[in-house]
Structures are given as structure tokens and as C-alpha cells.
Specification:
Thrombin, subunit H, seven-stranded antiparallel sheet, about 20% helix, Pdz3 Domain, about 35% strand, alpha+beta, 4 domains, globular, six-stranded antiparallel beta barrel
């Protein structure tokens, strides 16, 4: 018995001794507070040094009254080494001239590649003699609330200002839709941003872009105004930025699917608040008060995802929408149309063409992206695409016009010239068209030339 007790205490003494020695060694190997702060500091310095060469300053000029120009300043960053730059749409809105300045103070006249007002994203292009430094984009789905965030931009003309903070929230959406349909996925941050930061990147500690700094909100949740702004900062998520930026580079514009409803999120799904006349939802039989619970078999839970699903749907293709109506499930086949120009932020009142005045149509050239989004088109098709229509038009947006009175049409200029040649007394003409309804001939009534 004594032998067992002795062995027990010997083992206990050995364990305690090893623990004390290990603890002392562990404490000795731990960095001091200053060393920890120094490591964090060096990480921020490293990100700033690596990233600033790819950050650009942007100055745009738009005409105002009396031949004067309004100067708008902002930021951006090089997205691709060939000179493609990402920024905010509102930084270069209505600009006739756009200038870009790099870190070495070299200046370039920028070409506008494309804009998307629905997400506030724009792509510019500069022609440099050599490859430029570009910033990598992170997967914003992996961004965690509480992680470090680093903002770099040009507030108050103070070029390449670096500020730090944390990610305060994700998946924010709060901008009103006043006609233009918004697609929002904001990352909230307390990193200090201000006038001139718009379009600049929000980075993680690896120097990857997690978002484009876009706006600031005050405590009362209204847009910050005035020379000095204060409030939470919001950046467009990098996944949305990459998606839109890539499409703008490839196609110059974004083609979105459209249902034609206003909606409200409810516990069981999304309730239809209003149905626009002669739009896809109305034509398919959907009604005000219906609660959408599934879209193409996917459960509908929030308006943000639902809007994205509709926007990404192919134009001319049928989508299956399941709703609750009077407590019973019903399914509708809805043929998705392209979003009208008004909802996409393209002003209708600025259109000045013969086709608009005489046919009530605005057309554009056939582009590569059209074959991918419009299911009824092939790369062998030729003609012009209907981009906008006036109220109660016989022809929907996205229709391909291939001929006028039997003469083939391959460009906007050909259609305009054909309409210009028509006699004042001519009251109608026949268009050969191709749409989700197939190929057909449509007789259009012509409005008289003013």
C-alpha cells in the first residue's frame, strides 16, 4: 500500500513539474504586447504598399449651363492588367470627359466601357504602354463580420489615403427604388471614408478587394450630405462587382430579366403588391396579393435573392413561379422579358431618333451578349434589337427586327435611313421580326414626321 502511495505522489510530482516547466517556456516564447502591435502594424503597411500602385484617382466632367462643366472627383482601382478600371457609376455619370491619374502621377484620358446604374458600377479603360498592377478580388461570401477592413481612396483630393476598421455587417440593402430597380449587396464598415473615396477598394488584410466603397449613411439612415460627411460606410460586395464588371467588359451593357411587379417580403415568401400592365407577370396571370413561394423550384425567402434570380434569367425563356393564392398553391409559366430602359436607369426622354418618333421604338446593334441572354437568337441572326418601347407598343423589348417592307436591316443606320426615305403620307409598314413568339410579320402604324 505504501509503495502504491509513493508511486502515485512520484507521478503527480512529475506531472506538476513538467507543467510548470512547459508553462514557463510557453510564456517565454509568447510575443510581447509591443511585438503583437508591431506585427499588426506591419501587416497594414504591407497591404498599403502593395495595393496603392493599383489605386487610381478619377476626375470626370459633365456639361452644365452656359458652357460650364461640373467637376466630379472619385477613386477607382485597376481590375485587369490591360488597363480596365472599376469605379462607381455615380462618379462618372453623364460625363463627357474622364481623366485617370496613377500613383506615379501619370495621367490618361479614359474610355467608358460600360455602366450599370442598377448596381452603381462602371468600367473604364486606359491605354498604357505596359502592363499595370491590378488588385485581386476576394470571395465576398467568405467575408466575416468583425474582420479587418482597409479603405484606400482620394478623399478631399488627398490622394491614396489609407484608413482601417472592421467589417461591421454584410448583406445590407436599403436604397429606395424610385423607378430604377436596385440590386444591393453592401458590406458595412467603420473604416473612415469620405468625399472622393467613392469607387475605391475596401480590402482585407491579404490585399484582396472585398468591395467597392460606394456610399455613407448618417445615424438617421439618410444620405450624408455637405462638405464633411459622417456615418457608416458601405461597399458593393466583390462578388457582385466581379459579375457586373466582367459582363460590362464583354458586352458593354447588362441585360436583365424582368417580371413587372412591385413586391414586399412577408413571412411565407414575397407578396405581389402591384402588377404592371402588359408586362410578363400580368400576361401570365399573376395577380396582386399572390405570395410567391418558389421560383424555378427554388424556395423564395427574401427579395434580394429573388430579384437576382429574375435578373439572371434568360430573356424569352419561361420561368416557373409557384404562388399561394387564397391559401392554395398555383404554378404559372412566365416568359421573362428584358428590363425596360426606364427601370435600368437609361433616360427615355433623351432619345432622338426617327424610329422613336415614327415607330415608338428605340433600337441598337446586335451584340455578342444578346445570343447568350435571348434564347430565341443564334449567332447567325442579323438585324437590330429593340431596346426601348413606348407605352402599348405592339413589339416587346428584345425583339429582333430583320427586315422592313421586305428589305433586310443589318444596322441602326440602315433602319433610320429607310424610315427617313418614307413619304410623309405613308401610314404603315411591315416589319419582319423574331422574338419569343417566333418569327412573324408585324404591321406598324407610322406617326407623321414633325
Amino acid at each position: 500500500m505504501k509503495k502504491n502511495i509513493y508511486a502515485y505522489f512520484t507521478l503527480l510530482f512529475f506531472i506538476v513539474s513538467v507543467s510548470i516547466i512547459s508553462s514557463c517556456a510557453f510564456t517565454k516564447d509568447q510575443p510581447t504586447d509591443v511585438e503583437l502591435l508591431s506585427a499588426i502594424e506591419n501587416a497594414f503597411v504591407s497591404v498599403a504598399n502593395r495595393s496603392t500602385p493599383a489605386i487610381v484617382g478619377i476626375v470626370s466632367f459633365r456639361p452644365v449651363e452656359d458652357g460650364e462643366y461640373h467637376r466630379q472627383e472619385g477613386s477607382g482601382f485597376i481590375f485587369r492588367k490591360d488597363g480596365h478600371i472599376l469605379t462607381n457609376e455615380h462618379v462618372i455619370r453623364d460625363a463627357t470627359t474622364i481623366e485617370v491619374q496613377l500613383l506615379d502621377e501619370s495621367e490618361f484620358d479614359a474610355k467608358l466601357v460600360g455602366v450599370d446604374r442598377n448596381t452603381d458600377i462602371a468600367v473604364l479603360k486606359i491605354d498604357a504602354k505596359e502592363e499595370l498592377p491590378a488588385l485581386p478580388l476576394a470571395n465576398s461570401e467568405e467575408v466575416q463580420v468583425g474582420q479587418f477592413a482597409i479603405a484606400i481612396g482620394n478623399p478631399f483630393r488627398l490622394n491614396h489615403t489609407v484608413t482601417t476598421g472592421i467589417v461591421s455587417g454584410k448583406g445590407r440593402s436599403f436604397l429606395p427604388e424610385r423607378v430604377i430597380i436596385r440590386y444591393q449587396d453592401f458590406i458595412q464598415t467603420d473604416a473612415w471614408i469620405n468625399t472622393g473615396n467613392s469607387g475605391g477598394p475596401l480590402l482585407n488584410i491579404h490585399g484582396e478587394v472585398i468591395g467597392i466603397n460606394s456610399l455613407i449613411r448618417r445615424a438617421d439612415n439618410t444620405p450624408a450630405t455637405g462638405a464633411v460627411r459622417a456615418g457608416a460606410g458601405f461597399a458593393i460586395s466583390s462578388n457582385l462587382v466581379e459579375k457586373i464588371g466582367t459582363q460590362l467588359i464583354e458586352n458593354g451593357r447588362i441585360i436583365r430579366g424582368f417580371l413587372g411587379i412591385s413586391m414586399e417580403e412577408v413571412r411565407r415568401g414575397i407578396r405581389i403588391e402591384a402588377v404592371y400592365k402588359n408586362m410578363p407577370a400580368h400576361l401570365s396571370g399573376l395577380k396582386r396579393g399572390d405570395i410567391i413561394i418558389k421560383y424555378n423550384g427554388q424556395k423564395v425567402e427574401d427579395t434580394g435573392k429573388f430579384k437576382m434570380w429574375v435578373a439572371d434569367s434568360q430573356v424569352g425563356k419561361q420561368s416557373k413561379i409557384t404562388v399561394l393564392r387564397n391559401g392554395h398553391e398555383r404554378m404559372f409559366n412566365v416568359t421573362i422579358e428584358e428590363m425596360p430602359a426606364l427601370h435600368a436607369g437609361r433616360p427615355v426622354d433623351e432619345i432622338d431618333s426617327v424610329a422613336w418618333r415614327r415607330l415608338g421604338l428605340s433600337v441598337r446593334k446586335l451584340e455578342k451578349g444578346d445570343f447568350e441572354r435571348y434564347t430565341y437568337l443564334t449567332d447567325k441572326d442579323r438585324g437590330v434589337i429593340v431596346d426601348m418601347v413606348q407605352v402599348n407598343s405592339q413589339i416587346p423589348i428584345g425583339t429582333l427586327i430583320t427586315a422592313v417592307n421586305g428589305e433586310n436591316i443589318n444596322s441602326v443606320q440602315e433602319l433610320e435611313a429607310h424610315l427617313q426615305k418614307q413619304q410623309q403620307e405613308l401610314e404603315e409598314l411591315v416589319l419582319d421580326v423574331k422574338s419569343s413568339h417566333g418569327e412573324e410579320k408585324i404591321t406598324m402604324q407610322l406617326k407623321p414626321i414633325d
